[in-house]
Specification:
This protein is mainly α and 86 residues long. 60% of the residues lie in helices and 0% in strands. The protein has five helices and no strands. The mean pLDDT is 84.
């Protein structure tokens, strides 16, 4: 009895699973937390929602606040190694 999937396909399968889970996370986050998405019929009937506080809370989430305190470097150790003069 032969295999139905080759072992060379496993990394591709893992990458596609990861990307698909990121897409599902972002779509779910937008549906349930984005103030511009209106699920209620009463909210949909309004042309403009006055929910500035909710929009500010959505835009300024904890991860963004954390990143503001960090230096804008991807790999600071490698950057320091190559930028320091010897």
């Amino acid at each position: 009895m032969g295999r139905w999937m080759k072992p060379e396909v496993y990394p591709l399968l893992g990458a596609m699973t990861f990307v698909t889970s990121l897409c599902i996370f972002q779509l779910t986050r937008n549906v349930f937390m984005n103030p511009a998405v209106r699920i209620n019929k009463s909210d949909r009937s309004k042309a403009v929602l006055e929910n500035y506080e909710e929009g500010e809370k959505y835009a300024e989430h904890g991860f963004r606040k954390f990143l503001r305190t960090r230096p804008p470097e991807v790999m600071p150790t490698i950057n320091n190694f190559f930028s320091e003069s010897k």
